[in-house]
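Input chain follows. Return structure tokens only.
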Amino acid sequence: MAPERLLTPHRPHLLRAFYEWLLENDLTPHLVVDATQDGVEVPQEHVRDGQIVLNIGPSAVGNLNLGKDDVVFSARFGGVPRRIVAPMAALVAIYARENGAGTVFEDEPYYEALREGKIALEESGPEDDPEPPKPGRKAPFLKVVK
């Protein structure tokens, strides 16, 4: 029997789906983050019991990026602008402030393997992308018709 294949995580997809659904229903999305996880960049003075609740509504954040590996945005805390980074593995839940509608994220084997160092995040950026092939000069194929 072949070894079980480690599936990619579904958390980024669920996060984006719930975020859009909450906005569609005029609700305010809040994100619960485990602030004790590696890679989390949040104002520690707002962390309670190892977690922080962040309002990620469009009027509360700037430059929101719900990426494959993390959530990154800018926000103000006490009038001070801060850059927030929350790796997907650190996300606990997304819910609506108004009524609590949302979901708690289950732990996934992918994130367990990541924490245990069995796999690594793929680092990619503009410098890693191969340069697109340059189109070669082709002879024109149109003819003048008289």
